[in-house]
Amino acid sequence: MHASAVSSALAGHLAATGYAVRPALYTEAELAALLACIESAPAASPNFRRSQDVFAIRNLLGELPALWPLLDTPALRGLLAELFPAGCHLTKAIYFDKPAGSNWLVAWHQDLMINVASRAEVPGYGPWTTKAGWVAVQPPAAVLENTVTVRLHLDDCDATNGALKVVPGSHRYGVVPAEDIAAQTATAVGCPVPAGGAMLMKPLLLHASHRSTSARPRRVIHLEFSAEELPAWLAWRERRAVASQ
Ligand SMILES: O=C(O)CCC(=O)C(=O)O
Beta 147-153 vs 164-166: how paired, if at all? Predict the structure, then answer.
């Protein structure tokens, strides 16, 4: 099939349903190198959060700069070129482990906030939150609509170890008031992803995950990419240029 046909198929599927699974984005050897890099992290900064139920590293590429050259493969570049033919940048990177038997469950929600360098009053931006020095704001829907989350799975993931559940098409509902979310979840589906594969997701897609009943971990590198530039006075907290193919 011609590359542009593949491109429009993936972008079209994502536009229609709000999510997609791309298996085998990284090879076993690439996964091993990513895991070795993460495991070598000194874990000394407040951006590391470790408990019995979750291990998370936020500002992942700031904490572990050696990870980006391992992530920035021709396969990732090809995927991003399909999703953003005119180019994009990375806006956020987090690592999450939902360890074996974890009780961490995530309630239904949309990803409404972006991290910015500092607060500035700009029409259309708000509400704001500040937590442990991190400033986040809800941008206009256009910013969220032009963002794709790539969740790279480092382990086989199914319903027993916390695969995301999503409501197909719900990214087209706009911002759903918290009290209306439960009524929208009857058509939810699970999203199993094999190790080395990625789940792609629009931030406005309703999603949730169960606690783990498995003996397997569920390690994920969560990367957000956007084609949107923020208005003057605002800057993405973790912005990183992404080379085109
Ligand atoms: O990884 C999960 O189980 C949930 C993560 C999530 O909901 C999010 O990143 O918004």
Answer: unpaired
Report the separation in Å between the CA atom of 111 and the middle of ligand 1, taken as the mean of its atom positions: 9
pTM: 0.94
Confidence of residue 132 (pLDDT cuts 50, 70, 90): confident
**Domains defined along the chain, listed by start:** 3-241 (2.60.120.620)
The percent of residues in the chain predicted with pLDDT above 70, rounded, is 97
In angstroms, what is the span from residue 1 Cα to ligand 1's centroid?
Answer: 34
Which helix (H) or strand (E) covers residue 92, if one does?
strand 89-98
> Which helix H or strand E contains 38, and what residues bound it?
helix 28-39
Calculate the average pLDDT of the chain. Answer: 94
The span from the CA of 106 to the CA of 126, in Å, is: 23
CB of 207 shorter than 6 A to ligand 1? yes
Q: What angle do CA 84, 85, 87 make, to 5 degrees?
A: 65
Q: Is the pLDDT of residue 43 over 90?
A: no
106 lines ligand 1 (CB under 6 A): yes
Give the model's confidence band at 7: pLDDT under 50 very low, under 70 low, under 90 confident, else very high.
Answer: low
Q: Is 104 in the pocket of ligand 1 (CB under 6 A)?
A: no
